[in-house]
Design a protein that fits this description.
The protein contains 5 helices and 10 strands, in the order ββββαββββαββααα. The relative contact order is 0.17. The protein has 229 residues and is of the alpha+beta class. Helix content is 33%, strand content 32%. It has 2 domains: 5-140, no CATH class; 153-227, no CATH class. Strands 1, 4, 5, 6, 9 and 10 form a 6-stranded mixed β-sheet that branches. The model is unreliable at 143-153 and 207-213 (pLDDT under 50).
């Protein structure tokens, strides 16, 4: 399925260099069954991190508008996907992240990726993920909750679809830096995932709409950014 997937990994901080503003740890682990019934196999990240390392971002809370930095080291070992970040920026959110790391509040990482190759074992009811296209690794306070209540399926899906069309147009016609194109690709994948999840829930939830869900700040920022280009 060509959709963005999210996997969280708790207790994955190895070291915090407060002077150099560098974080080291793991974005993902191998061989353990997660709550989705998936096991990421050793070797799943190799192709992606070898071929497109410079397009993989270290984000704050999966927010493509808050890129912390990129990775100086990103490689597999026996345990999982090990990373050493480049220095975190001297921005308000970058400084907050460093303080929260130091306080021990931030100790979980997550990856945003697309599954390229996998095998499903019906007897075990496990999906073995063998190849991944990695878009980003994030520091997260808590794992994403896909069960957050919401209303206004049809209006929200239309808004997301409109945003996706704008991003497609920008990617086709825009003359941006490679870094901006990579961030727009992440934004597009995130919106596609949201649209898919809303579509699935619209089939199971009541269709009565009590109010129109307002456009999120993230969506407004995407549209405003593209309008100003």
């Amino acid at each position: 399925m060509d959709l963005l997937e999210i996997k969280d990994f708790t207790g994955s901080v190895k070291d915090i260099d407060t002077k150099g503003r560098i974080i080291t740890g793991y974005l993902s682990s191998f061989g353990n069954k997660d709550h989705d019934g998936d096991i990421i196999m050793k070797g799943a990240y190799n192709k992606s991190v070898t071929e497109r390392k410079n397009q993989i971002f270290f984000l704050n809370q999966h927010n493509w508008q808050q890129p912390l930095t990129k990775f100086n080291v990103l490689q597999e070992d026996e345990k999982g996907l090990y990373f050493e970040s480049m220095p975190l920026p001297d921005t308000s959110y970058g400084n907050d992240v460093m303080k929260l790391y130091e306080a021990g509040v931030l100790k979980e990482h997550s990856v945003g990726f697309q599954t390229i190759k996998s095998d499903y074992n019906k007897e075990e009811q496990i999906r073995y993920i063998k190849e991944i296209k990695l878009y980003e690794g994030s520091v997260v306070t808590l794992g994403a909750n896909s069960d957050t209540p919401f209303t206004g399926f049809k209006s929200t899906i239309k808004e997301i679809d409109d945003e996706i069309k704008l991003i497609y147009k920008a990617i086709r016609n825009g003359s941006y830096t490679d870094e901006t194109f990579s961030l727009l690709e992440i934004a597009l994948k995130q919106l596609q995932r949201k649209s898919y999840e809303l579509g699935i829930k619209s089939l199971t939830e009541p269709t009565i709409v009590t109010h129109q869900e307002p456009m999120t700040d993230e969506a407004k920022a995407i549209i405003n950014y593209l309008k100003n280009k």
